[in-house]
Amino acid sequence: MVRGIHRPTVAKVDLGAIKINIQQIRSHMKPDKQLLAVVKGDGYGHGAVSVANAAKEAGVDGFCVAILDEAFELRESGFTEDFLLVMGLTEVRDVALMADANISVAVSSIEWLEQAIPLLALRKTDNPLRIHLAVDTGMGRIGIRTESKVRAFESFCQQHESLHLEGIFTHFATADGEDEFQVERQYEVFKKLVASMKVRPKMVHLANSAMTLWREDYETDAARIGIAMYGYNPSDTTLPLPYPLIPALTLETEIAYVKQMQEGETISYGARYRAYEGEWIATLPIGYADGWRRDLHTLPVLVEGNACPVRGVICMDQCMISLPKAYPIGTKVVMLGESHGQINGPSEMAAAIGTIGYEILCGISQRVPRIYIDSTHE
Ligand SMILES: Cc1ncc(COP(=O)(O)O)c(C=O)c1O
Fold first, then answer.
1. Which keywords belong to this entry (predicted)?
2. If you placed Cys at 17, which of 131, 246, 272, 377 could pair as Cys (CB 3.0 to 4.6 Å)?
3. Residue 38 contacts by C-beta under 8 Å, 6 or more apart in sequence?
4. Residue nearest atom 5 of ligand 1, based on CA coordinates
């Protein structure tokens, strides 16, 4: 994918904000708990390797990713010794690679382990495969669900030297909402499944950002922190943050073209928007191929703190906005972030189009260059 470095549309990522957020979250966690930085999905759109470097500087205990290639990206970028967990399912044919790279992997069935044993003979190191048993306590996504299967899984691991059962974990479906009932129920199921094991693994973990922010009494050896580390509220606006976090990402562009319209002249595909007499229209070099989704047309963008409405449909590479007055070409436009005290956060954007902040952040495409600053060094 081409990165558009010859146009002014950029995602600025403040690595200092990420470090401060990690310190802030850590200061509210019990001291013996591990903090794992979740950098899947290219670090929620912020750039996995740069975020991981910042997170390491802030003293995290390891990293979590979703797919094996994301783990290899970190290993190849110099994170050679760090704890690294692939939380999603992996292909059993790759087990020798996983063991050799000392990567911990989520496993969800004994059948997978059975298939892994002969393939592990092909590994080049003596590393056992580091396994985190995924248990499904109500998310309904991956994981073993019964005590007897947990026991059988544990006993299978104990019988094979090439397997090391390092952890057991689960994921909550409603931790970002007010519904305590489902969270409690999942917690009870998790405790039972863990109690059914003969030997408690080194890492028993259940917390994501929401569990860590709002439910610190739930016992976990590690917190897998994603969205909060980037400075965002996992619930968008449902629950208030218990302490402040600093949003790390600003999506900016510049006015590329300005014109004054006559009444009734139309804007963009479908000629659906008709300008009023004298309306100032600016063209911005950003569109849905950059992740500025077509249905975001109801969300104003910020020009010197002024909320400027989008006019007409958003095109693949450009969109048009209405200005309160003539602004020069090159004037900065904040699509996502803060400008003169006004905020266009991912949660505001998400609300405008019926999604969640996570999707907005991950949706900023690779065409948009990520530029790194560190506000703690300024
Ligand atoms: C298993 C698991 N743990 C932790 C996380 C991190 O979640 P959050 O970004 O809400 O902290 C995720 C993300 O979806 C996940 O799938």
1. Isomerase, Pyridoxal phosphate
2. 246
3. 44, 63, 64, 65, 87, 208, 224, 225, 226, 229
4. 208
Within 8 A by CB and 6+ apart from 46, the residues are 11, 13, 18, 230, 248, 249, 361, 370
Q: How far is the C-alpha of 120 from the C-alpha of 114, rounded, in Å?
A: 10
Q: How many residues does the chain have?
A: 378
What's the Cα-to-Cα distance from 176 to each of 95, 244, 273, rounded to whole Å? 34, 16, 38
The CB of 209 under 6 Å from ligand 1? The reply is yes
Q: Which residues form the catalytic set?
A: 40, 269
Give the other-Cβ count within 10 Å of 102's Cβ: 18
Q: Would you list the domain boundaries of the chain?
A: 33-225, 249-377
Cα four-point dihedral sign 11, 15, 16, 17 = positive
Average pLDDT over residues 120-134: 97
What Rg value do the Cα atoms of the chain yield, rounded? 24
| Residue 253 β-bridge partners | 333
% pLDDT > 70, the chain: 100
pLDDT tens profile 51-110: 999 999 999 999 999 999 999 999 999 999 999 999 999 999 999 999 999 999 999 999
326-351: average pLDDT: 94
User: Which homologous superfamily is 249-377 in?
Assistant: Lyase, Ornithine Decarboxylase; Chain A, domain 1 (2.40.37.10)
pLDDT in tens, 209-245: 999 999 988 999 999 999 999 999 999 999 999 999 9
d(CA 246, CA 375): 11
For the domain covering 33-225, report its CATH number: 3.20.20.10
Same fold, 33-225 and 249-377: no
Q: What percent of the chain has pLDDT over 90?
A: 95
Task: Reduce the DSSP state of residue 1 to 3 states and report it.
Answer: coil
Quick check: CB of 38 below 6 Å from ligand 1? yes
Which residue's alpha carbon is at the smallest distance from atom 13 of ligand 1? Answer: 226
Beta strand pairing status for 319-323 and 280-284?
A: antiparallel
